Every structure is written in structure tokens, then in C-alpha cells.
Amino acid sequence: MTNERHAGKNKRESILKKDQFYLPEGVIYLDGNSLGPMPKAASSRVNKTVEDEWGEMLIKGWNDAGWMKQPSILGDKIGKLLGCAAGSTVLGDTLSVKVYQALAAALAMRPDRKIVLSDSGNFPSDLYIADGLLRTLKSGHELRVVAPEDVYDNITEDVAVVMLTQVDYRTGRMHDMNALTKATHDVGAVSIWDLAHSAGAVPVDMAASNAEFAVGCTYKYLNGGPGAPAFIYIRPDIADSVEPSLAGWLGHAQPFAFDLDYRPAPGIERMRVGTPPILQLAALETALAIWDGVSMDDVRAKSIALSELFIEGVEATCSQLKLISPRDSSQRGSQISFAFEHGYPAMQALIAAGVIGDFRAPDTMRFGFTPLYLDENDVKRAVEILADIMKNDTWKQPRFQKKGDVT
Amino acid sequence: MTNERHAGKNKRESILKKDQFYLPEGVIYLDGNSLGPMPKAASSRVNKTVEDEWGEMLIKGWNDAGWMKQPSILGDKIGKLLGCAAGSTVLGDTLSVKVYQALAAALAMRPDRKIVLSDSGNFPSDLYIADGLLRTLKSGHELRVVAPEDVYDNITEDVAVVMLTQVDYRTGRMHDMNALTKATHDVGAVSIWDLAHSAGAVPVDMAASNAEFAVGCTYKYLNGGPGAPAFIYIRPDIADSVEPSLAGWLGHAQPFAFDLDYRPAPGIERMRVGTPPILQLAALETALAIWDGVSMDDVRAKSIALSELFIEGVEATCSQLKLISPRDSSQRGSQISFAFEHGYPAMQALIAAGVIGDFRAPDTMRFGFTPLYLDENDVKRAVEILADIMKNDTWKQPRFQKKGDVT
């Protein structure tokens, strides 16, 4: 530990893996919190899967290319970044489906309680999924959505499940996972954490948190590519007693026995549902290889340094923009958001100038800080370009006013 | 119609698209009912998505490369092959997830009935999913599984949903979709068809069947690649009243408004859940392009011709193999199965000799017939090789006895 600390500066520098990612010429990418960039190794790896595996092996790829095991092998690589025990994390489906699986399982663990507690800073899909599940159950459950700062006080003894996203997708505000999980357990409720904006962004220790479930996606800070599968973690001591709602054949104890009756596979494997997306997993494999040996503490330190540099620069040069992320770096994840009434055209102007962030209605300009492929010079340059746009009112140009389908 | 019939022979010949698929040298591929082969265009198309779209466009790919619309655009291409109205089919997730969505929605349409009727010829995952949903609901539902030949007589007035796979994955036996759907509707129940072994294999007319729901996968006869997403169809007149159980954000009326409340998108779009798998969709796009303009009637005629040729050849030369598919071609899909006590090693020996079929426990050797890339010579050669293996007891060699993980 002493040695590690001693070597801190060098280690932090070594986490810059810019040479392993492809970034278009002239682009400063501050949207890795939405979709991470392409690892340079991705295209040849995916090509290998298409031509040498699918093309040459055909159906035999399931065994000979190891396709069937990819969700567990890569799941473990993600688990390792999140402090999950080996064999407790598996990949598949999308985050929304994984939220459904976790919540259905958690509710089944507390049949006498009817409240699901969440907050208005949760990603809307998590709330929609909870709402859809409760409407499907028709069992008198209630989804109680409170303000993020009121969560703690609303963890009461009638709550079955506390379902939260650790890092707010709008502001980057970060919940105290360990404290809230402890409060959840103190009232006998079950804890589910959505780590979409945490995985690869901030240090997480699932084992230490003692939470029962975690879910997340792999196309943000983990850089798995558009539509990369989601992950789900179940605390090992309860995994064998979890009842799968989505009882698909690949979560069966013996999928290829083709029994008519469902028997869940041991442990986390029961959270697998259907055929895994092999091309997506190939891309994700290259992204996760970059994370091998990377210390999340080093990522965190660098993320804070870059974020502080950005806040300082923007506040010094863009008085129209108001910081809405927590100013205290320990209270936020790896993104910085500013409110600006004309945030949409301003972001379009910024993107046109090569600095890619994104916009969230009604007025939020979001910027993600991703130490694997961003350095101080990128951040300084991004500030300069943003300052120039604000100073010159570039965003007022009509071409930046037109709304796209997706931001 | 007269002209079409007149031109029948030429049209049937024109459906052979062998030049558009990659097949390894010396391989006769009779397992397209499990995983279709790679379209030659797939690798460059996927590479374009990885390098030119993900790599160059980054987050902008969702709009600029049209990623967000792919599930609907490609869904419609599949719908067209299945007699679905435009705008009634969408892609996403896996078949097991789509079964769950359809069954949950169907049950919500008949709240006073508690029976889900299916059969023992259904793919096990469909039964597992039903079982998992009913256990999640805890509402006193019963999954009633009868023999395939007993389905008709068990469609009674207490049945809420009849959920069947049209073509039996083991034997190729095919249900009469229109007759069973009519019987289902006559008792006021809701009809769900799994078309996993139908799509791209046999003519289906969803509109004519009047069934409410259909689901299926795209990696079998449609050749979408390992882990290609599934599809779901809802009859257009009821789609707007279907309640999504998996209420994910991409099925929301305005996903990017980030409202806290869920409002389903109009029509079939509400069956979308989370972020679509863009690399898989790129591969699938090339596979579906090959189907453009292909007549399913022509595919069917050729499939029957190839199947008959195979049955005739095998029965003339391999007396140990017993046909377990229906002998009447109108009663089966596009696969032929034979029972053989030593089917596992026999299939391994056959695969080693370049003829790839597959094995399903306890004793079924399965062979799929896929007119897009198989011709009469392939079938004759496959018969010769199989006959040789049976005549020489090649399968008795120890190297063919060892069981793999997946067959």
C-alpha cells in the first residue's frame, strides 16, 4: 500500500490508454458517459468473430470459439472492477431487462412488504421498468419516488426494496452506497444498485456494500460499443435462492437437456435468459482487456483532477453556465453538468467545434470525464472552445437550433 | 398468379443464393435451422458499423447512422416475410424475453381466466418463461402442457392464452396455425405463436391467421448471426391497448423527454425495451437483404423437394435410421429428423465428414433444409456420406463418442 501510494503519480499517468482507443481527428470526446469510444482492437476482434468464428465454425462456434461462456467470463471481468466475488456477475440483455430481473427477485424475497422506494434522480427507464413490473404483478405494490436527498429518511420498515442509481445521469450527484445499503438492511429491506454511471467511473466495492443486487450497462465508461449487453450481480450467499422471473433456457441448470421443467442453474448463471449477443460480446471483450490491471482508485483520482480543471476553467470563462453538479468531488461521479437556458444550441455549437458532450432536457449540458482516453490538454482545449462559443454567441446561429431525434 | 405459376421452375431456381453466403470448403450445412451461415456481406457491413459508425460518429451514430430506427426498419422486413402489416413487427432482446412480453400482455387481456395452454413440443425455454412469469404473478395461473396432438381438444373456455411453437424443434412437425388460432378465438382466448422454426422456413400469413401475437428469432433460417435479436409482432388493431410488462425507456412515447412517468409508444414500438444491439443488427441487415424479393412459396416448394430427396435417400441406404418427422410434407416445417439409438456419435462422425447437422437428446439427428444455400447436389452428397458412415459403422470410433458442452 505504501509503495502503491508512493508510486501514485506514475501510476496515475499510466492509466492514460489513449493509444488503445480510436478517436476521430480533432475530436475531444466528453460523452463517454453515454457511449464510450471504439477500442482500436475492436474491429479486428469483431471481424474475427464474424469471419473466423461464425463463418468458419458455424454452429460449432458455441463450443469451439467459447461463445457460450463469454457472458460469464466477461461478466467476471466487470465484477472484478466493482468488487464482486468471482462467479457473481453475468452479462446479457439490456440494463432495463436486468433491472426487471433484479426487482422481481427482490420483491419475491419480501412478500409481505409492498413498497419499492426509488428517487427522481434515477434513470427514467428504471422507474418505468418498476412501474411495468408492479402493474404486471397487480399485487398492491407501490412505487414510491422521492427526491434524492429524501431517500435516507424514507427508508422505513414498510419498504420491500430500495432501488437506486448510484450516480445521477443528469448531474453526476452520487449516493453514498454503503450508508444507504446499511439503512436499507437496518429496516429489513433489499437493496438494488444501478451502476450504469459508476462502472468504470468510480470505485465501487459491492462486497463491502453488502447490497443484494447490482446491475449496469457496459457501453458507457466500459466502452463496450453501441448496444453492448448489460450486467447483473447477485450477492453470492443469496444467489442460489433467487427465483428468476425471466426463466430462460440459458439460465437453466441443463439447457441442453431440453427438460420440460425449469430448474435454475446454480448461482448467478440463473440470471442468463436467452442466446447471448456474440458480436457485441466480441467488441466488449476488447474494451474490457484495456481495463486489465487498471486501478479504479487511480481512475478516480484522475477523473477528479480533470473534472476540477474543467469546472475551474468554465467558471472562469463562461459566466452564463451554472454548475449543477455537486461542487464537492466526493459527492459526484465522473461527469460534470452545467445548466444553461440555451444549452441545446450551445451543445450543438460545441459539437460542431469538435467537443462532444450531450444535452439533457430542459437545460443541462453534460460532460463526461474518462481518464483512459482524456488528458489535461484535452480538458483545457475543451474549455477554450466552449469559452469561445459563449463569448461569441456562436450558439445563436440558426444551424444550431434544429433539434435532432436523439441528443 | 397464372404467370407466377407458369414461371415456377425458373423462379424456384432463382431462389438459390449460394453465392451470397460463405460456406467453408467441403462443408454441407444442414444446421441452418439452428444457426444460419454468414452472409458474405456481413463482415464488411459489421466492420463499417464498428469503424465508420461507432468509431467516427461516436454518440452521433444513434441519429446519423440510423441506429435508433434499425429495430423497426429491420423488423418490418421480417414482418413482410410473415404476412405482417407494415409497422407491426419490431426487433430486440432475445426470443425468451419476447415470449415473456407477449404472454404477460396476453394474460392481461383475459384477467378472468387462469389457464395458459401449451404443448410438450414447444421449445422448452417458452415453457420455462411461462412458468417463470406465472410464478412471478402468483395469481393462481396454471401452465397446462399437453401433447401436441391434444392441443386442439384442450382449447376450452377456461383457457386465457394458447401459446404454441408452430414447428416442433425436434421433429419438424407443424401445427395448423390458422385452425388452432380460430379454435383459440372461438373460445375467447388469445393466441401467441412462436415462429422460431417458421420464419424464413415456411410461408406464414400472420394477418390471415388473425393471431394476436407472434415472436421468433432471427439467427436460424433468417441467418442473422449468433445472438441476433428476436422479433415480436402484435396484431395492429390491439397493439395500442397492449400493456407492456417490460416497460423500458425505448418503448416510451418520448424516450428522450426523460419523463418520470411511463407512457407507452404507439403500436408495436412499445415492445422495445432497452438499447438495441447495433453490431448484431448490422449483420442481420445483410442477411435480410438476401431475402428481398424472395417468395416464401418458392422457398417452401424447394424445401419440400430437398427434404423429400433426403428422406428417400436416407431410407434407401440407412436402415438403422427411423424417420420421426411427419412423412406428409404439409405437416412439417423445413427440417427432417431421424431417430437412431447412437445418434450422438453418428452425428459427430457426420460432422467430421463435412456434413453438419445436429443432435437433440435422447436420439434425434436433425437436418435443416434451407433452399437459399442448399441444392440437390448437396443433399445427394450428404446422403452418400451418411450412408457411408452407417455402412462402415464409422460412428463406433472412440473419437466420436465424447460429448461436447453444446450440440
From TrEMBL, chains A, B:
GO molecular function: kynureninase activity
Pathway the protein contributes to: Cofactor biosynthesis; NAD(+) biosynthesis; quinolinate from L-kynurenine: step 2/3; Amino-acid degradation; L-kynurenine degradation; L-alanine and anthranilate from L-kynurenine: step 1/1
Protein name, entry field: Kynureninase
Main function: Catalyzes the cleavage of L-kynurenine (L-Kyn) and L-3-hydroxykynurenine (L-3OHKyn) into anthranilic acid (AA) and 3-hydroxyanthranilic acid (3-OHAA), respectively.
Catalytic activity: L-kynurenine + H2O = anthranilate + L-alanine + H(+); 3-hydroxy-L-kynurenine + H2O = 3-hydroxyanthranilate + L-alanine + H(+)
Binding site for pyridoxal 5'-phosphate: L95, S96, F123, P124, S125, D126, T165, D194, H197, Y219, W249, T275
Organism, as annotated: Ahrensia kielensis
Cited Pfam families: KYNU_C (PF22580)
Tagged with keyword DNA repair: no
Quaternary structure annotation from Swiss-Prot or TrEMBL: Homodimer.
Keyword annotations: Hydrolase, Pyridine nucleotide biosynthesis, Pyridoxal phosphate
